[in-house]
Each structure stands twice: as structure tokens, then as C-alpha cells.
Amino acid sequence: MTDVSVHEVGTRDGLQSISTFVPTEVKKSWCRAEFHAGVREIEVCSLVPLKLIPQFSDAGEVVRHALALEGLTVAALVPNLKGAEKAAELGVHKINYVISVSESHNRANVRRSTEESAADFERIVALCRSRPKEARPVVVGGLATALGCTMEGKVPEDRVRRLAVRLAEAGADEIILADTVGYGDPAMVRRLFGAVTRDLGAVPITAHFHDTRGLGLANVLAALDAGIRAFDASLAGLGGCPYAPGASGNISTEDLVFMLESMGLKTGVNLEKLLAVRRTVCAALGDQPFHGAIAKAGLPKGFTVATSA
Amino acid sequence: MTDVSVHEVGTRDGLQSISTFVPTEVKKSWCRAEFHAGVREIEVCSLVPLKLIPQFSDAGEVVRHALALEGLTVAALVPNLKGAEKAAELGVHKINYVISVSESHNRANVRRSTEESAADFERIVALCRSRPKEARPVVVGGLATALGCTMEGKVPEDRVRRLAVRLAEAGADEIILADTVGYGDPAMVRRLFGAVTRDLGAVPITAHFHDTRGLGLANVLAALDAGIRAFDASLAGLGGCPYAPGASGNISTEDLVFMLESMGLKTGVNLEKLLAVRRTVCAALGDQPFHGAIAKAGLPKGFTVATSA
In sequence order, which residues have a C-beta less than 8 Å from that of residue B206 and are 6 or more positions away? Predict the structure, then answer.
């Protein structure tokens, strides 16, 4: 049993920021190797129109490969009903649908209002519920820019809470609160995650933090204090922000696992194996902005590596 | 009034890791500019034998310059009684004496046992108390490797607590607990800083964190939770660990101020001015490993910059 779930999103959030096509074999072996290192949930692709992100043109093959790894939860990000239909056809276990809380960000991202996106979510839930029980994916309502927006600045907490409740009432099995642009701070995180946790009751919440401004792991600590036990992260911190060259993207999976395991929280992830995956993936991806501290500094003397889940 | 004190140590911890001599004018203008950005305590030099660290051969001139900045607390690090005598002669406001909790680290660092170093501290306290009241420096007992040691691995919490109490009983006005090698994690930090705070009662404690393994700011958050309100930090995260090339050193002052101010904690530091100091200092220091996220990513839209103290 683990105390905290670590979800790999580098295969989606990281790869979508790489403009050259990454070979399918690299994607497949990345998923496989992380699974063997103990990671039990991977967002393996984004099901967006291929003309927007050709990187995921091999999504079908990657999903099929990941589905063969027994015990792995295979997730796909979808921006709309069409993506959800494709995800359901492919047989993913989990559909991560994303709405930006900030109206401007949502329009820039998917060219419609937050309200239209929320209405679309209801159709996605209906789609999933129409499927036979054994082939019904978990539906996740993700809220991007939940801690701030590069276009609108501060995002009102009330708006985030209302949208989270709306998605839960529409039938979300889980909620993701995402600090898409790295604006969150620990005080804000404790407040917001605490409030949404109280609002939603039993609906599980995942925290998705970017380390753009260096506060990623401090925000993880704050979210842990608020009772959050599931975190998205990206191997080598892949997924830089296009508006800030040199700035890092997602929190790095290795550093997240290092912090959690150091604190005595079981993740089921074997950090030495995970660091080996990082080396292989970085070598395969070539010249990209890789982040993360533990890979550079090495594990502390006396650190106990967990057995893979 | 400020909620949290930010102590700049880049002028000591950062400069001591630069092998080429940094011009005295650069050191002086660094101190001056940070003071004008609102920083109210700077460790301006280390008073070690010059043949060990020639970087601080101009300590006298730098200290005199810093002492002229009214309202600035000028601190110097000293490794022994001789350094303390020099510091007192120069008229610094604060003497930061450092002992490694780990026996092996202390021997490697100052070639004597922790016990001998502790005994030396008593002589330093006596020296300071022998001075006229208006010229009596604050004496600080610093404990290096308080959260782990690259040579010994885990450092027993009891040992840290006993040494902290010993230095306080010997007359330390303040205590510093330092994660010299970046081994600390937030759970350990909460436990240790909580325990030492209870042990010491009214003696103020400063936290000195390195970001070697990426947990620096998460550890700051943990220390804040334990009631700590003073933090050492280094501009641009200067002060890399010699055993881990590419790994960062101290937590970066800019990122620390960004986190604290974002959380609504007043530091008295104007972050825009501080970022300007960073640009000037980095340009003057040339090719060094600079760290820190906020300088790369930029302040969030809507961030309120504090007025300088």
C-alpha cells in the first residue's frame, strides 16, 4: 500500500512541448520503465486534433502498449467531447478533461467559454456512463489556471470552488486542480485545496503543480497538509512554459518522489530505478531543457530506496 | 515591521566558493544595493586564515563599508577564537560561529573535534562579554550538518538538540541550524526545528537551507510552520556544493523573498530591486553557476512588490 499516488504526466505535458516527433518506441519504453519503477498512473497522451499537436499521432499504439501493463492506470488528456470519444474507444482507464478557470485562458486554449467547456463535460460524463460498466472510464474534471493565470493574473478562489463543485455535481469521479503557469504559493494552496476538499467531500483531488517559479515542492507540502494524496509530475521536469524560456515546467517526478519518500510517505516508486528511467529518456529525447535537483546531486548517504510497488 | 527576516549570505557562502578574487568594489556595491533593496542583515565575509580562502583578504574594507549602511546588521562568519577576535576588532554587529554537528565533518572542516569547537565557543562568548557594552557583538552559535552529513549520513536529532542547548547555555544570543549539504526534508525540519525551539525557549533560531536536492523552499515552509522567522539565503543561489557539480547551493534569496511575499509575509525586501541587484552581481561575477527560478520566469501578473524596509 502507498500513502501518496504519483502520476506521471511527462508523457503528455512534457512531450506536447517538444516540437519534433518522439519515436513511438521511446514513448512505449518510457511508460514501461516507469511502470517497472513503481509508478501506477501515467497520462500517456493528449487526444487533441493531430494538426494541433502531431506529437500524439501514435496515441493509439502507445495506449495499447500501456494497457498491457497490468496494474497501471492509463490516462489520456482530452480537450473536448471528440477527444473523450476517442479515449473511450481506445479503452483508457481514465479521461482527464481540462477546463481553464480563467476565461481568457480557456478561450486561448480551446476557443470557447468556460461555461461551454463545463457544458461539454456533462456530455463527456454521459458518454462514459453510456458504456458498459466494465469498459467505463473514470472521468476526471481538471481545472487549469486554478492558482493564477498569465493573462488575468489572480484567479478568484470562489470561481475555482464553484467550478469544482459544478464538475463534481456533473459526475466527475475525481478533480484535478492545476497551477498551470506556476503562480501558486503555499498559503494559497493550503487555502484553496482545503476549501475544495471541504466542498467536495469524498471526491478525490489531484494536485498538478508547475515549478516555473521554484515553489513546486513547497506547494506539494502545502497540499499534503490540506490532505491531498495524489500528485501529477513530469520526469526531468519536462514541459517548460513557452512564455518563459529557461523556466522549468512541471515539478519533476524524481524530486517529488525524493521529497515524499524522505518524509516517510510511501509512493511505491523505487527512486534508483526512476533515476535510471530518467537517464534513458533524457538520452532518447536529446537536447531538451531537463530539470530536477536529485538527479544532479545524487541521493543522500543513508537514503533508503523503496521497493517498487 | 517585517514578519520574516531574510539574511543574505551569498557575500560569504557564495563568494567562498569562487576561486578567483572578486573585486572589493563588487562586494561593497553588492552589500549596498541589497541594503537599498530592503535586506537588513548580511553576512559580509568569513574570517578564516587568508591562506585558506584568499577571497576574504579585503574583509576589513568590506566590513567598514557595510557598517556605514545605517540599519544594516553586519555579520561575519568565524571558524575559531582568532576569527572572532578579528571580527570584534572590525566592529561587526554579529559573529556567526560554526560547529559541525557531525564529528567527521567538523574534523574535515576545522581539524578538531566537535567538543573542542564547543569549548572554543565559550571563549568566544567570554571575549565578546569582555568588550564594552556598546561594542559588544551578538554571538551566534551555528550548527552545520544539522540535518545530515555527506560523510556520516543521518545525524541524530538528539545530538543536534544537545549541542544547541550547550551553545545556548554557553551564552549564544542566537542559534543557526544549517542544512549544509541539502539532506533535510520537510518532515525532519518540522521535527527538529520544533524540538529545538521548545528546548531553547526565547533564543531566536535562524534556518540555513541549501537547495542541493530541490527541497530548500519546502524546508522553509516547514520551518515557518515550526515558528522560525529568520532565514539565510544567497543571491542567485550562489554557493554550490563542491561534491556535486551542477547542483545548486544555498536557497536563492530572490526565490525565498518571492515565496514569503506571495504568502503575505512581509520581508521588507523590494523584489524588483532585489532582482536588479541579482542582474548586476551576476554580470560582475561572470561565469558562475547561478540558480533561482523567479529571475528566469519573471514575477506573476498582479504580484505586489513590497516597499523596501
Answer: B5, B7, B140, B174, B175, B176, B177, B228, B230, B231, B232
Quick one: pLDDT at residue B243?
56
Domain boundaries defined on chain B: 5-297
Using pLDDT thresholds of 50, 70 and 90, give the confidence band for residue A247: low
CATH entry 3.20.20.70 includes domain A5-297: yes
Which among B150, B215, B297 has CB closest to A213? B297
ipTM, two decimals: 0.96
Residues of A in contact with B221 (CB under 8 A): 186, 218, 221-222
Spell out which residues of chain A touch residue B105, defining contact as CB-CB under 8 Å: none
When computed from its CA atoms, the radius of gyration of chain B, rounded to whole angstroms, is 18
Which residues from chain B sit within 8 angstroms of residue A221, using beta carbons? 186, 218, 221-222
pLDDT in tens, A80-113: 999 999 999 999 999 999 999 999 999 988 899 9
A169: Cβ contacts below 8 Å, ≥ 6 apart = none
Contact B211, B251 (CB under 8 A): yes
- For residue B31, indicate whether it is catalytic: no
Question: What is the tens place of the pLDDT at every residue in B95-110?
Answer: 999 999 999 999 988 8
- For residue A214, the distance in angstroms to the closest alpha carbon of chain B comes to 5
pTM as predicted:
0.97
Give, as one character, the DSSP assignment of residue B149.
B
